[in-house]
């Protein structure tokens, strides 16, 4: 009897929609988990014995060395930028985020194009200096090469989180250590690294998830990992069941990593409890110290952005006439179309679940929030497998209805753009959810409650009171989802309808067809749009932080 | 009786202890009752339960002979017709004073809406501030606007949650007399929560003391 009354506040459209959204997100993941226990195919035995060990080895090596590299580069840069003043510092503070604008797969074929036999380095050596080099030293298409790409294009995840943390949190500790006469290097290793552990772990786990998600780099470089193996068993052997088994194995690895992350972060969030945050005052570096800092930042920035970007511009100028045609225009249209529709859906879904979660603070709403952000941890190839199995099921169920209303295909949904867009939604929901949740957190519930006390229901209160105050977080949620969809590769490759190409799939296809120069225009478009979006996002974020 | 609350109990989902237990209260129409207690005594929670923002564990709430909450029934906050002045006022920052006040009058025709808004602005003596935005007002002015906004839809019951806690001490004395006057003039039944004995004395017809979720009636003013 107590129950009915307890649930009355839940009877509204937000609850209903939230339940639907959460089911949508969770269905593909569950379908993979279930299939893990289903009897395996013949191929699986083969895959398990001959392929799996290598996948595990490669994945482990990539994760370990990329993590070490991104932590070293990311935290050292964060420390330099927040604790010191040197020439170019204000430029590098923002410029060092830019490598994120270059998707690793674009970086991979660009670097290969720079370093290979016909690339700019070797031709210059041959033609100007008459030096022919041993190809072994210039072969980037190896596991260490892939690690190099991941490190230099993913380190900003660690850099941004750690810098934000250090800028706000470390002032008192660092100043004390300086008073005690500790050397700068000692401060870095004995104070900075330990106190920013939670931030570093958070940033690094994002890096690891990106590495596991990657398909482009490892496929192009020929380093077998789970993503490539899922593609291969599925399309090469035509064995979806074995692909699902691989996906499920990868998912178990992901959950282990997430568990490790929360374990490493537990109770280690050293934030001050007071609201009076004093920013760290930077020390001015002089003479050779200043130039060393400058050179270090410049080298990282060049490797992670400048060099590949200039090379791409050069190639674009070579091939521009040939590429820019109506077909290319349709690529842009396709890319914008899926990105706009996908991110609109993502933003709406995020608002619904986030609003539901904040109004009913309960175990259920917490669980919903958790599920909503689950997709970001799951690699594209895994989501692709999961969503395809779900859509095939739905198509099988609806087959009769298709017949009845005269649709000519038994695979109506699973060959439609709808499937691809659903996959984007699941994978990138977390990106905008986090932004929107933070926005709700900031305005709190009091305005909503005041509005309800004045006779407006939850929905009206949202439109009249919350929405006008939420424009910035909603917009940044949209931008983040938009750029993520724009540069997405594995999901798009697997789930796109026949003959449907986007900028990213076309660029990757050119590159794998040894037409690297032709890939430049599409790549540059992706990079420029992403770079603008990222910079706007971080500027808004910082001005927001300063205001509050 | 205009307000009847019987055996109300409540605990937050993640807490074992009851924030509020065995709470009884009856009120005449037009009466002002103060609930006096230290922070954490459960007095704000009491208001949130009465207005429907929290679901009680057990008990009955009746206002004007209508059941708001009992074993089987729970009326949503927006349907209760209760007005609330929040501790930090919660004036909508993106609306000016006039829009804040007519927010609860959306069901009235435009003309009546305007008349009612002018009426309550008159009541609080702030007719000239219509076009101002909340951030352009002093704390005392914000508080009066919040009161006017809550009074505008003519609620059956008015709840005030520590309305003086954000004001300077000088202002507080002046305003609490004003507040009692306004409420009495409007003839509205009110429950007023405070931690300040002086406030309670100055405003209330009757005082209820709260400690650790239990209420004790005070027969005389303290």
Automatic annotation (TrEMBL), chain A:
Its main location: membrane. The keyword Transmembrane applies. Keywords: Cell inner membrane, Cell membrane, Membrane, Transmembrane, Transmembrane helix, Transport. GO terms for biological process: transmembrane transport. One of its GO terms (cellular component) is plasma membrane. It is a multi-pass membrane protein. It holds the Pfam family BPD_transp_1. It is found in: Cell inner membrane; Cell membrane. CDD domains: TM_PBP2 (cd06261). Residues 56-259, 332-537 form the ABC transmembrane type-1 domain. The chain crosses the membrane at residues 12-38, 59-82, 94-115, 136-159, 187-209, 216-235, 241-260, 288-310, 336-356, 368-392, 404-426, 462-483, 519-541. InterPro entries: MetI-like, MetI-like_sf. Belongs to the binding-protein-dependent transport system permease family. This is Iron(III) transport system permease protein. The lineage of its organism: Bacteria, Bacillati, Bacillota, Bacilli, Bacillales.
Automatic annotation (TrEMBL), chain B:
Pfam families: ABC_tran. InterPro entries: AAA+_ATPase, ABC_SmlMolc_Importer, ABC_transporter-like_ATP-bd, ABC_transporter-like_CS, ABC_transpr_FbpC, P-loop_NTPase. Residues 3-222 form the ABC transporter domain. One of its GO terms (molecular function) is ATP hydrolysis activity. Keywords: ATP-binding, Cell membrane, Ion transport, Iron, Iron transport, Membrane, Nucleotide-binding, Transport. One of its GO terms (cellular component) is membrane. This is Iron(III) transport system ATP-binding protein. It comes from Saliterribacillus persicus.
